[in-house]
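Notes from the 1:1 (GR / supervisor)

We went over the backlog. Supervisor wanted to see one worked example end to end before approving the batch request, so GR pasted a single chain during the call. The sequence is below; no edits were made to it. Supervisor asked that the structure be written out right there so they could see what the output format looks like.
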Amino acid sequence: MANELRGDIQGLRAVAVLVVIAAHAGVPFLRGGFVGVDVFFVISGYLIAGLLYREVLLTGQVSIGAFWARRARRILPAATLVTVVTVLLSLAWMSLVDAREVVVDALWACAFAANIRFAQQGVDYFATIDGVGPSPLQHYWSLGAEEQFYLAWPLLLTLCLVVTALLAKAPDRRAERLPRRAVLTMLAALTLASLLWSVHATLTSPATAYFSTLTRAWELGVGAMVALLPPPFLRRLTRLSLEIMAVTGVVVLLAACMLISEDTPFPGIAAVLPVAATAMLIVAGGPADVPGRRTRTSRVLAVAPMRVVGDWSYSLYLWHWPAFVLAPIAVGRALTGFEKGLTVLVVITLSAYTYRFVEQPFRAGRPAHRLSARRRALSLYPASAALVAVTAAGAWWWTGFQGGEHGDNPPITVAGAPIDGLQDSTEALVRASVAAARAERAVPSNLTPDLLNLRSSIADVGDCDYEDNVRSLCPHGDGDQTVVVVGDSHARAWIPAFDRIVAAGDWTAYYLVKPQCTAAHVTIASLGSDQPFTDCTDFQRWVVDQVDALHPELVVVASSPPVNGVFEGDKRRTAVGDIVPLLRGGYDDLFRQLGRYAGRVALIRDVPKSPDDPATCLTSGNPSLGDCMFEPVERSTVLGDVAVDSAYASGIEVVDPTPWLCYQGECPTVIGGTLSYRDTDHITTEYAANLWAELGNALTMGLPS
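Structure output shown during the call:
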């Protein structure tokens, strides 16, 4: 049975948090150290399941309120402290836009639902994408998953009690009518279902699978099953078998830390390694009531320094991630190895003090005695939420005040700009905006969209969100002519322009767009792994089938280059020189197939990509327009040329939006009074809508003059 006082368990916690910190610090031979989180999950399942089952044996029931009260004293004080401090430091060091994102993350974190938020956002746990760094509260996803388990497990155990009592027709003898076999059977079924779902989801939706409670529940379930192993079975294990099991557990866990990497599909089947290793190490600790059965490994894990680090492990986990995320932002560059070492020392110091003055008092000190009553302890939940909410409200107001719509800086106009007779066209305004940026003019006030809400400027796709593997058609408009827009999120960014074209002309539009799914008929890698993005391949085939069925007058293709490489057979190619011929063949095939079923096919050249996030630039310090103007990323430009070359060779029309965004190789992030980009490579919905007439005329869609 689980015993919370086992020293080897504390030592195992120390190992888990140390390898997590090492991985996040960039230690090269421990790239897979993030599996320490999986170790924590198994330990948590082991301790909590054993605790509750013992309660059932002693009292015949589960006191859900008392259990949640204990969890409140254990989890909330330190988590709340770190959340509040992280929000305040984010205000001091991050851009206003990024700080606002942290404020929202804090609210999700205090509700123990951070994993849901990051899964919904499709966050890639392993990567910094498009210049936008990870949230300093991203690690709260694991607390969310654990707390959701803590919510479900006592309820499941209570349900098992009730069902057993009803079947036995003896509700007054529930403790005797709940054999281990019944609970283990329930756990085994749920654990297996979660594991199978984890394997499936990791392959089909890796970005969301990493954070999902459903893909992680089996890890806690394994720990719970270990806690319920019958004592007679444990006593029959020989000393030699326990020693072998312990050594095997160490080897497997070390292999997981060294061999698993950010390129490994995870959790999925790969997570079996750290989970199985942890289970073996826990079992090898030996039954607590049989002296002299401890293995050498368990004795090493239980030495005093390891127990101390294990005691601090919760605080170490809470502090290390915001330290690694915020420190580079504070100094304005990546940390050196020496600076990372200093950061770790700061984290250790903060953790020691947090354990001593925050965690321990709420466990065994005066606050714990005052909160000994269940109702008082449960009040920690609303108290924590209120403190975080007040901090978030203040932070939200502060970012709004700092980046608010005050000031009288005028928008950019064409007056006095080098427009060369272009008059009041979009190209003239772009040239004027470049000239204003070169002159280091102040950023205009009252921008559209609102600067602090820039990242939410994403086109609405209605009911047909193909990111969620929808397979139906949603028409927009009721005109006699049909236009189908095909591509990824870059095609989606043009939807506001097409919506206005549809409203002004005689068109019905279908937006067959799937984020991260390049339009070219190539097999690309999933964003969060080195595995093929099979959903994308399936979607590409489905799109061709729909174009065949619709026989539209016009198909418009808009797509970015693949972000994470292209497969040639079973090999993933990431170098530009290797991608170009594969991508060219994919576009040739796309245009050939579309040309069979559509009256016309046109390509919108991919928009220039910025090396830095414009939202971060425009809300950091007091930038001028020139500080945030950019030159396009060369790799994106080269790969964008591939689609253009294929289109010309296939007799496909090409619309180049570059003059609507850039002039003489420079691209302003503010054009007139409108923000042109919401991130490094997506135009805003507002600016796309402004371009509807230019786009419609370039595509010769017969718009009224």
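Supervisor's comment: DSSP finds 28 helices and nine strands in the chain.
Batch request approved.
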